[in-house]
Amino acid sequence: MTEKLSDETRGPLLEPLFAAGWQMVEGRDAIEKTFVFKDFVEAFGWMARVAIWAEKWDHHPEWSNVYKTVEVVLSTHDVGGLSALDAKLARKMDSLAE
Ligand SMILES: C[C@H](O)[C@H](O)[C@H]1CNC2=NC(N)=NC(=O)C2=N1
Fold first, then answer.
1. Cα–Cα dist 47/80, whole Å
2. Which CDD domains match (predicted)?
3. pTM score, two decimals?
4. How much distance in Å is there from the Cα of 61 to the middle of ligand 1?
5. Domain membership flag for residue 6
């Protein structure tokens, strides 16, 4: 069952993501990161690969794409804030962008 991150669990899960360029969304329990790729094909290819994992895990990003830039916000709507699924999807996004 998905649960909102507790005070004890959020530090260890989120600190590595902050070090990797993620940050808290102002006024919301959500994380955001802007990914910039070489061109549109790279950006959209990455989105397609992420989408397969998102669907597999039934956990979907809020994102927008303009040419080679993808702005991502992750939060768990079912719990009204961050859950471990957001950290898991963020790590997958980072590894697929490498
Ligand atoms: C019914 C379905 O499983 C839920 O609505 C899933 C789908 N994808 C989701 N994605 C995200 N980011 N948060 C959710 O709470 C969520 N819930």
1. 24
2. PCD_DCoH_subfamily_b
3. 0.97
4. 9
5. no
